[in-house]
């Protein structure tokens, strides 16, 4: 059954939908795409490689029938720090309760439990906090012995088997890529994922290792969920191809009141660098079990859009929730509403990245933005081999659509993540004049421009040479 012929989204902010048990068949994935999902996230923390392969094939089938590139993000699990098991499955605790955390894997009780991570023991000091179960339980290290830590319960009432542990304010001597991650990365690349999302990033070197393994065949998206990553934000942004504000673990490890300003800090830094940035986690959390979000959640999504994020992401809402299609549709409506707000455009125009001194490509992309405003152009069209020209255009956050023409389908799929970009694969362009003719024709066919309107076109000569953007032309749509 073919999808409805695809017309480019009018909103500029992109939507990422996570697939899972509630969204694993072709009917549901197609509905998510039609409701507004621009990219799909495969969460390698769950499911088998065969599960992900089946979902990826469905996405590619939908992409073919819709004749529109769809991006796929393979999200690696990263190191998972957890307590061990208890004899009765859980223990009840109160503030002031003392217990030991050791490396003994036998089932624990109220007096002790295994913490199977010697790396935590190595960096532990008296007074250090350990947060269990997303911060519901707070433990303070009181003593450090050779084979255990003595901790006091500061807050919390219950700890059950295998609950996660966060260690705020400390760089743990743990590699960001586990052996499982390395196997998953190979599998994701074999499947043809466009983005590799790396968890537990603490420093730029973590990204460098992953980029070495991908060899440029997939782009690396850094998930920022550790305070140590924020401290080295500039270096991580420089090396990563995109960034995700992963507010789940980040919101556990820093005080909740710090999350909004940190979110703005990250979004601004990544935008200034001209790279895509996603805001993620608990955006419409109540829609896991409710057909409508809370007003606070709608406001949270809107805040990310006002911040200028390239994309906003749904996690459990579409992976395991009861209302996956409704969640995507709601996010789509919120984005459209914000972007039509008279105050939205002044916010986007209030701050534009400076062009790099002596960089012709950057200067032309910035000029395309300003000229499109001056002549009331219908769209900006970029021809790009690697996507860099379209990224430069997107970081200006223009008020008109950006049509990204590229001969490389993998570039087109990756560009689905970028603000306001409508990627189109074109493999039959033979020169600059031919590109101009096809650019105006595609703008008209896609409904992004009408006869008699103008478009601003950027490209490079020699034509098709990567990194050679040096021409700006205004063309009429016939």
Description:
The structure is a single chain. This protein is elongated. α15 links the parallel β17 and β18 (402-406). The chain has 478 residues and is α/β, with parallel strands linked by helices. It has helices at residues 26-35, 49-66, 118-123, 179-191, 204-214, 227-231, 233-239, 247-253, 259-272, 295-307, 316-319, 324-339, 344-349, 360-374, 388-394, 409-415, 432-445; strands at 14-19, 39-43, 71-75, 90-92, 98-102, 112-114, 129-132, 137-144, 148-155, 158-160, 165-166, 195-198, 219-224, 242-246, 277-280, 311-314, 379-383, 402-406, 421-425, 454-460, 469-476. The chain is 36% helix and 22% strand. It has three domains: 14-79 and 175-341, TIM Barrel; 90-166, Beta Barrel (M1 Pyruvate Kinase, Domain 3); 360-476, Pyruvate kinase, C-terminal domain (Pyruvate Kinase, Chain: A, domain 1), CATH 3.40.1380. An eight-stranded parallel β-barrel has the order 1-2-3-12-13-14-15-16, surrounded by nine helices. Strands 6-5-9-8-7-11 form a six-stranded mixed β-sheet, with helices on one face. The longest helix is centred in the N-terminal third of the chain and has 18 residues, at 49-66.
How do you describe this structure in short?
With 478 residues, the chain is of the alpha/beta class. It has helices at residues 26-35, 49-66, 118-123, 179-191, 204-214, 227-231, 233-239, 247-253, 259-272, 295-307, 316-319, 324-339, 344-349, 360-374, 388-394, 409-415, 432-445, and strands spanning 14-19, 39-43, 71-75, 90-92, 98-102, 112-114, 129-132, 137-144, 148-155, 158-160, 165-166, 195-198, 219-224, 242-246, 277-280, 311-314, 379-383, 402-406, 421-425, 454-460, 469-476. The model has no long low-confidence stretch (mean pLDDT 93).
């Amino acid at each position: 059954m073919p999808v409805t012929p695809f017309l480019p989204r009018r909103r500029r902010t992109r939507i990422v939908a996570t697939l899972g048990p509630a969204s694993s068949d072709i009917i549901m994935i197609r509905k998510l795409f039609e409701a507004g999902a621009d990219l799909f996230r495969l969460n390698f923390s769950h499911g088998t490689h065969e599960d992900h392969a089946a979902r990826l094939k469905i996405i590619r089938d939908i992409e073919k029938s819709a004749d529109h590139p769809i991006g796929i993000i393979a999200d690696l699990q990263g190191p998972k720090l957890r307590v061990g098991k208890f004899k009765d499955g859980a223990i009840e605790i109160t503030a002031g309760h003392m217990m030991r955390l050791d490396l003994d894997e036998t089932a624990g009780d109220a007096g002790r439990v295994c913490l199977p991570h010697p790396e935590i023991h190595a960096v532990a000091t008296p007074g250090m906090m350990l947060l269990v179960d997303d911060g519901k339980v707070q433990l303070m290290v009181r003593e450090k012995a050779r084979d255990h830590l003595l901790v006091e319960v500061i807050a919390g009432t219950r700890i059950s088997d295998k609950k996660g542990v966060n260690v705020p304010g400390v760089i743990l001597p743990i590699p960001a890529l586990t052996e499982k991650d390395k196997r998953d990365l190979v599998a994701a690349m074999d499947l043809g994922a466009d983005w590799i999302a790396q968890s537990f990033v603490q420093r730029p070197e973590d990204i460098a290792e992953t980029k070495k393994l991908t060899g440029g065949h997939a782009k690396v998206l850094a998930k920022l969920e550790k305070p140590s990553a924020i401290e080295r934000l500039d270096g991580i942004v420089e090396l990563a191809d995109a960034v995700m504000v992963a507010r789940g673990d980040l919101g556990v490890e820093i005080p909740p009141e710090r999350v909004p300003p940190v979110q703005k800090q990250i979004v601004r830094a990544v935008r200034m660098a001209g790279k895509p940035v996603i805001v993620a986690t608990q955006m419409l959390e109540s829609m896991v079990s409710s057909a409508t979000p809370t007003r606070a959640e709608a406001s949270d999504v809107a805040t990310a859009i006002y911040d200028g994020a390239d994309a906003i992401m749904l996690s459990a809402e579409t992976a395991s929730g009861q209302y996956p299609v409704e969640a995507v549709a709601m996010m789509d409506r919120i984005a459209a509403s914000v972007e039509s707000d008279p105050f939205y455009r002044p916010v986007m125009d209030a701050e534009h990245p400076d062009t790099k001194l002596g960089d012709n490509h950057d200067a032309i992309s910035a000029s395309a933005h300003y000229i499109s405003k001056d002549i009331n152009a219908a769209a900006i069209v970029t021809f790009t081999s690697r996507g860099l020209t379209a990224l430069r255009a997107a970081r200006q956050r223009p008020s008109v659509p950006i049509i990204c023409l590229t001969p490389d389908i993998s570039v087109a799929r990756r560009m689905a993540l970028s603000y306001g970009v409508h990627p189109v694969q074109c493999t039959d362009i033979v020169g600059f004049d031919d590109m101009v003719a096809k650019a105006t024709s595609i703008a008209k066919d896609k409904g992004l421009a009408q006869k008699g309107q103008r478009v601003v076109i950027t490209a490079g000569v020699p034509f098709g040479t990567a990194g050679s953007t040096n021409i700006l032309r205004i063309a009429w749509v016939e």
